[in-house]
Design a protein that fits this description.
disordered N terminus, 40% helix
Amino acid sequence: MNCATYPWMKLAHSVTIPCVSQMLSSNVATVGGGGEHDSIGKSTDSSDGKSETNQGSGPDGQLNRSLSFDGRRKVWARVEAHWARVTLDRSVPSGTANSADKHDPQGAIGEQPFYQRIRSWLTNNPQTQTYQQSPVMTKIENVRMLDRYNNRKPSTGTLYLTATHLIFVDPDAKKETWVLLMHVATVQKLPLSTVGAPLQIRCKTFLSVTFVLPRERECHDLYTSLMQMSQPFHIEDLYCFHYTSSLEEIPRTAGWTFFDLETEFQRMGVPNSNWTMTNLNKDYQLCDTYPQCLFVPSSVSTIVLVGSASFRSKGRLPVLTYLHKNQAALCRCSQPLSGFSARCVEDEQLLNGIVQANPNAKFMYVVDTRPRINAMANRAAGKGYENENFYENIKFQFCGIENIHVMRSSLSKLLEACELKTPSMAAFINGVQSSGWLRHIHAILDTSLLVARSLKEGVNVLVHCSDGWDRTAQVCSLAQVLLDPYYRTLQGFQSLIEKDWLSFGHKFTDRCGYLQSDAKETSPVFTQLVDCMWQLQRAHPSAFQFSERLLLHLHDHVYSSQYGTFVGNCEKDRLDLKLSDRTYSLWGNIASHLDEFLNPLYKSDAYTELLEPNLVPSNILFWRGLYCRFESGVHPRESIADVLLATRDHSTSLEMHIAHLQKRITAMKTLLDVSTPVTDNRLAVDDEDDEQQLGLRLKKSMQVVDDHPLSTSKSADSVFSDGPNIENSITSSYQLRREIDSVCIDWRSLRNIKECVCSTPFDHSSKKSHCWRCGEVFCTRCLDKQTPLPGHATHRPVPVCRACYREVRLSSSSITST
């Protein structure tokens, strides 16, 4: 008998595990030879697709299927423990030191086909259902979804739990509510009521929903599942490692090569005579949370850089992050390990080198974004801030941005004000004020404006907080947005996030709470950046190429972990995880939907200098579109930006169609002019040669319009043929009709459209999009195709619905075949 199956024979006849002996057959040595089955209970290697319970032949038919799913899961736990114990007893000599390190029972068990077969049967529910091609782990019917603005008419439907989403379907209202499990922030069981067991779910996207389940046991099971699935233990269990894009046109590699750090610094004119790139951090030996390429003053030596890194928290020494066109430098770092009186000569020399790198100023500002009391408290722990007595030519200033713990508490209080059970104007205003959230937003913007003004004046600025990856990232990135119009474009904003947040080590995994870890490490640092950007957009609507929708899209996907772009705490983490090879990039997703994020009011030449917002308290507003966007009834029917975008797209489509028709008319006029009889003796031809000469002239005239999408040199005789070739005449007529019909002249209005053709209801947060061919309105899921239209002068792919996409491709293939 095979030694690999002997433990299973022993296990099958074990009296200590009776349910196992009931489950396994006596002919256990041949069980591994059966065909594999999927979780739905249908054979994957059988052409007839019969249920595995109906297959009496074969070893798999000898397994006892009467055990319940919960019973089988308990069996599995004992099977795995027994196998590990048996394997260790058989393979590890007694008395061997560190024998557990030399043998991996889990690896050995995983290699056995019989083990894999038993595990698949024990852990998979044979009654698994699907919803929209997603396997359903749990299905609960007669669930009520409460709306705090409409308690009298709660929605009643079915709740589905899949591996990635919690889906509530109300068939009567034709409404679906999808909650991404990675978006779940908190799950709370509320006191039992007469109608059932309430379960409240709060999301990181500020969606708050309460489901009333008919049975308390179902509520507890769902609560346990959500707690486990919303925060995995291991980083490789995140959504991005299992997500597959539904768009075949978007490859996995799209977006990962859009940004290069060295190229971005070359755009600023670095390296130059004052700044150079150092390779000391090539293998992340100098600082593992910094990027590999660092830019430092040309005058400092390697010893100075190493010494400064040892004097800064986490090794985050002062380095360049932005160079203004007037040679003023923006640098960033972490707090010094100064304590009460410690000093570092190398760190002082590095700061002096930064001052000397700017020939236009003899001093520099050191901006500590923390409140003074916080920085002084850190001195007791051996950290602190720069002593002006030790550093020459610096001016020091505190700015009073609170730490991550205060910000986390502030957001929690803000959301409490947004979710009042009995909302009133006084309670809401008091709640927002007591949260202090708007005060924190003002402090971040005020500090960023201070830094931007200093750089505009030609003075270098060094920014740090405690570790240099939270408040420092906020201030540095916003200061660059105020200074440089490039960072107000889509491409520039992406480069800014890649550089100051991803490359310089903002702890996205910890701050966004991807994994089950210390809850005190989570904080809405990136949410505050998005809020500050919205404040600037609202104050200067024509200064930004992208709209509010991009900020919402970016915020949601930072917390979703659907894309690998923001997974990891630093650049080194992302390289170790090989995210560019294993996951999709958010930038590739945004690039495929650019039209959704463009600002129709953008003027590239409107703000070419410093953007100076008026930061009086009355101008810092509560962003209802982010924190209350899921509240039905408090938003306008259509966003003004969406209406403007639809109008712009419609105008663009008509302009491209007009340009195409003008080309067609020009070509026809040219042919008519050529075919007109001439009286010039130099151009006159004999009657017998008239037909041949006319053909030659027609071919020459068609060379003028060779750029037409349907015009080629070899088909000049057939495009507008006047000869006896009837088939070519019909083809050219069909092509002309196809071009005219491919562009819709009148688009349907966005108003009063309540649902898509797929029955997906439109609400205030849904994007309504037009098909450029038929002019109908669709949701983003239905409008996922792009193709050039024959009636447009340019060959730019435009959004079309799936039906129009098939018709355009079919007509194109038919013309090609003819």
